Amino acid sequence: QLQAFGGGLVQPGGSLRLSCVASGIAFSIRAMSWYRQAPGKQRELVAIVTGSGSTDYADSVKGRFLVSRDNAKKTVYLQMNSLKPEDGAVYYCNTFPAVTDYWGQGTLVTVSS
After folding, report:
1. Residue 21: its pLDDT value, please?
2. pLDDT of 49-95, one tens digit each?
3. How many Å is the Cα radius of gyration of the chain?
4. Which of 67, 84, 70 is closest to 17 using CA atoms?
5. How far apart are CA 6 and CA 24, in angstroms?
6. Which residues have a Cβ under 8 Å from the Cβ of 36 and sit 6 or more positions away?
7. Cα-Cα-Cα-Cα dihedral of 64, 6, 32, 69, to 10°?
8. Inter-residue contact 112 to 85 (CB < 8 Å)
9. Which candidate, 96, 90, 93, places its Cα nearest to that of 110?
């Protein structure tokens, strides 16, 4: 299972850090990912971190978001900086490629003044 948390309300330009704790999977060898889904929009891939720590990002968040992982804690993080209203969405973590059974409830991020 994957449990994401850390969402909340933040002002434009602010920062937020999301966390995702894994259980029951071989975490250290799996690439992990963050996705988001805004109301009325399709779920989109935001960031990927491989087991060795290599990262990749959607163009819309490059330079603002930072994905990292702690294999000892089986946790993946998403540091979000310079947040924009369009970053508001439910954020989910999953493996990469995503596994249907691993979708959790996500964590809601609202960016508003």
Report:
1. 96
2. 999 999 999 999 999 999 999 999 999 999 999 999 999 999 999 99
3. 13
4. 67
5. 21
6. 43, 44, 46, 87, 89, 90, 91, 92, 109
7. 80
8. yes
9. 90
